[in-house]
Amino acid sequence: MVVDQSVDLVRVNARTTDAFDIFNLRHYIGPNPDLGTAAAAFDFALVEANPPRSLEEYVAVIGDRYPLLLKETHKSYAHLFARTVAEVSKLEMDLHITQWAVKQQGSRTRIAVQAVHARTSRAIVYCVWDWFEAITRDRRFWIEDQIEVLQETFRDSVFGGPTVYALLQTAYDLGIPTFYLWDERLMQYGYGRKQVRGIATTFDHDSHIDSDFTTGKDDCKAFLHTLGFPVPHGSIVYTEAEALTAAERIGYPVAVKPVVGHKGIGVTAGIMDETELVQAFDRAVAAVPEDQSIRIIVEKSIAGKDFRLLCVAGKFVAATERRPASVTGDGKSTINELIDRENRTPARVDTPTSPLGKIKCDEAMERYLDEQGLSLNSVLEADRTIYLRKVANLSAGGLSIDATRQMHPDTIILAQDIAQHFRLTCLGIDVIAQDLSESWKKGNFGIIEINAAPGINMHLKPAIGESVDVPAYLLKTFFETGKAARIPIISCNRISVPELQEIADYILRHQPDWTIGAVCAKGVFINRSEKHQHIDYNTNVQNLLRNPRLDLLIAEYREDVLERDGMFYYGSNIVVLDEPTEVEKMLARDVFEDSVVVIKQEDTVSIHRNGLIEQYQLGEDEPFSRVYLKEIATLL
Question: In which element (H, E) is residue 124 found?
């Protein structure tokens, strides 16, 4: 067992009763001296005046929540603390936290745990600290309540949406560099001229005209009709009286929805009479954005199941059936009790990454129950199943069922034909059909609407059926491999402005059309042109990598920046180290298999390439640049 060190005289953050102290907590946005990823890093120590319980007692309590920890060997309190932070960091949402490090440093232990969102990670560290102290004092700690709060914190972050997080994790798995542009509120995938930017499933390669066109349900529906695609017959109305007239002409049942809208807000299907129509019209009007005029669609309501067909880059990739939330009676429980019982099942954890959300009770649900002659206080007969909504809203507790393999070839062709008419990377097609295994040409099939920014979690994590890796389809549209998302990067630990310009000039002699970004402690440059230097060093690096014309980056990372902020990016093609410190040697730690590392110690130079090391002495007047420029030539 590793002996944990104690804080002898001065507590840093610990309270007088605490057995543990946590201090120097910071968030690194990328590789750092402790870990090769973004991380929450902090110092851990025991408080000498308050001895902890035995390590086994902490393992027993924490293992009750996380049984996997009971099967592992923990060398010290610090190791257990790090492992607990890593497990809690997954937030019971299957977040991709796989790396942590524990390093003894004199009287303290340095802990680093992979992190996604700074504020959430900080809160997790303090939550685990409180949990350990509660165990020390033999007090009950409501970790499940804390997890809910932490989940909400993460959900409110830019990474908390299921689509954004799925793309972020997939990019990480594929080796595609990704970072968030806070001022633009966009995610960037790839560096420099290789980059793609986007919001969820909308990307800068998409036609914004086509995207806006899909939000106008009337024009889009007319366009699909002109192309011969099956859309339900209907009309646009502006008043309640016009809606009643249109419904009479079309024939009940009808559906009502606003012309401009999304996520099914204000949509009512299966309207059977004038009373229901008036109520549906009011709901549609209420859903119209304030800056839009009131235009409502009244159309024929098609009987069948609700499906989302998904196309990526014009190709069909997935289909999901969406069913409204339902409950099954037991002959003694009310509908309200059945809903409560269903919501307490493990499957309905109600997180952005879960297949099932909690069933939500609202006015729309109560109204639909009333239409069935029921209320929340009604007791259902044993084995009787009822739907709680007309619309299959997954965010309100609906059920997603993978239907990809059911698709009839005719319907796949239909989806692809529609997608080919839109310059959109990702396109969702909402349809009503009895059975996707039958050709749409047999009838009773209708296209309800087109979505330019569809969510993908229903395909990635359906409640029933196989997962379809839509994030991989999306990212591989732009990047065949992770390497295809990168530009060459040269990292140095110590370089002057003249040396930077010498490297840039050398590269431009071979590649005169390239745009080269360079940054060091003394300045920021595009080719030889000096640019604005931000006070935050990593912001300068980011500003270069977000430049859509950049072909190559040269970046200096000195010890002070690495210790304080870490690196902005992972991985260098060439690393040039001149008398590196132990911390600066991390630049050589985070390299690719085909990277080259050149290290100078006094007059000895070693070149690490393809698993081999070449070493020789510099001549008396031989400049170091002669060595590394020769290696840089391999990039050109």
Answer: helix 118-136
